[in-house]
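Data card: per-record layout.
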Amino acid sequence: MKKKLKILAAGDIHGDSRLANQLAERAEKEKVDLVILCGDLTESDKPSKGIIYPFIKKNKRVLLIPGNHDSFATADFLAEFYGIKNIHGYSVRYEDVGIFGCSAVNIGPGQMSESEIYELLKKSFEKIKYLDKKIMVTHTPPTSTKMEKLSHMFLGTKNVNVASKGVERAVRKFKPDVLLCSHLHEAEGIEEKLDGTLVINVGRKGKIIEI
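The structure for this 211-residue chain is written out next.
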């Protein structure tokens, strides 16, 4: 029987080094194999010490993607400096599990069109599509979900789109086992199914999954 991959996923740290330390301690205590950070590591792209290092200090493997508060350059810098992987438009393999991602932000300085989001997810998916288990990682949640409806309730308008049609399209086309996202703070902890995919808003507190 193959050993399951144990993952701690979290997002929306927003430069909070105390939170990063708490998450790193949890990763060590729970003996996770991998940490996935789903964007908004910084606050308005301001450099913040102690966001990645706590995980490195605990000898944890880390994957990240940028959020709407992180520039692509900052995400690349953090990945290179700490020797970890930025999977925005890329994928990685851990035994029979493939993980692919894209920031999928449709607001802010790194804003992408919905077609760009879909095409980047398609590109990263192609490298791991043959694997038995697949995890998609985005910052922005998909449309046609409770998360999207919740955003309208809190924002009070349907004209501000905090969910992504490109992400929804990718979920329906590529059918990953799990989608890990964050971005909408009010939806933290929500888990729901979209066309067979388990969508989890991991939030600041983080979620541990095994696959």
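Known properties of this structure: Helices lie at 17-29, 53-57, 72-82, 114-126, 146-155, 165-174. The chain has a mean pLDDT of 91.

See the next section for split statistics.
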